[in-house]
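Supplementary notes (optional reading)

For those who missed the lab, this is the record we used. Protein: Vacuolar protein sorting-associated protein 45. Length: 332 residues.
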Amino acid sequence: VVYTQSEILQREVYLFERLDSPNREPMKHLKAICFLRPTKENVELLVQELRRPKYSVYFIYFSNVISKSDVKALAEADEQEVVAEVQEFYGDYIAVNPHVFSLNILGCCRGRSWDPAQLARTTQGLTALLLSLKKCPMIRYQLSSEPAKRLAECVKQVITKEYELFDFRRTEVPPLLLILDRSDDAITPLLNQWTYQAMVHELLGINNNRIDLSRVPGISKDLREVVLSAENDEFYANNMYLNFAEIGTNIKNLMEDFQRRKPKEQQKLESIADMKAFVENYPQFKKMSGTVSKHVTVVGELSRLVAERNLLEVSEVEQELACQSDHSSALQ
């Protein structure tokens, strides 16, 4: 989610593998950079890897705090002394946008109390976030919520235990970690969303900034899965929080801009200078063409679903229920 493959290629990383994929070929001429969550399974996979190393040198980065016993297990497995360094590089969460992160957890509670595994994962994700932002916060939680209290206590325990890691320079106003319980908001889940990112998430589903469009009628092969990331999609970055009506207008402008550029790109190439200009502009043109077809497809599918599910009418009723105290007309 953080890096595109082409960005990583520019850093001279040419091979992408998973530790758990079988039948990897030994390539002793390559160095390996391992970026892993410090889970039991990952440490075990790494131990097996170090016993029979496939690469010349290993640089190991864990996305969160790793226990001394796990480091010891890795040291014992590294008989051939291929490990160059082991570091903690806090990134144990999915950075969806500059202002939003996720832990990709679906359903963290059983009834009104935490699922223990999900509580542990949420604590790890939150503390990694605090470490990467260099914040040692005041913690406040919703008093009426037992799950919020439990999470606050778990985060506090980690900060107390790893106090050396959280020893950041104090600010005049300490940062605040505010933990709220989603179940106290009875209104928002009943309302349809009408901004671009929220509609895509609600109607099509976004998973790690990818959208599965394979069910869209008549979809072309290239567009079965598309990436929506504000990092490298200017149109999406500018429109993600705009209303659906505005998106329609902006898509039209994008199309018109694309059409204006198109004939220029396809003019006759009579001189070397023409060819040079065409080659220089072609990647931009190709990128813009991809952006246009992607957003036209996504917005087209959103409007199909809005019509199919009568969402304009439904949404009007929802808003009346949420905003007015007299519900007799809504019942009608």
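If you only remember one thing from this example: The first strand starts at residue 31 and ends at 36.
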